[in-house]
From TrEMBL:
Binds 1 zinc ion. Belongs to the DNA gyrase inhibitor YacG family. Inhibits all the catalytic activities of DNA gyrase by preventing its interaction with DNA. Acts by binding directly to the C-terminal domain of GyrB, which probably disrupts DNA binding by the gyrase. Pfam families: YacG. GO terms for biological process: regulation of DNA-templated transcription. The gene is yacG. InterPro entries: DNA_gyrase_inhibitor_YacG, Znf_NHR/GATA. NCBIfam families: PRK01343.1. Its cofactor is Zn(2+). Interacts with GyrB. This is DNA gyrase inhibitor YacG. Keywords: Metal-binding, Zinc. Zn(2+) binds at residues 19, 22, 34, 38. It comes from Roseomonas acroporae. One of its GO terms (molecular function) is zinc ion binding.
Amino acid sequence: MSVEKDAKPAARSVRARRCPVCGKPAEAATRPFCSPRCRQVDLGRWLTGAYVVPGEDGEAAPDDFGA
Ligand SMILES: [Zn+2]
């Protein structure tokens, strides 16, 4: 929380983040992604990983997720 406090406002905007999907510089409108499309792609991956088909992996602990 206090880490950003020391950073100058200008430095924050200059710092270009890379799109985690394709590696291009992120756009302000779709940060941290470069485009809505990449955002969707990442969202899809996230959902795919989160919503694992029940029964396939008996090792998973659902209780850990809800609470
Ligand atoms: Zn991208």
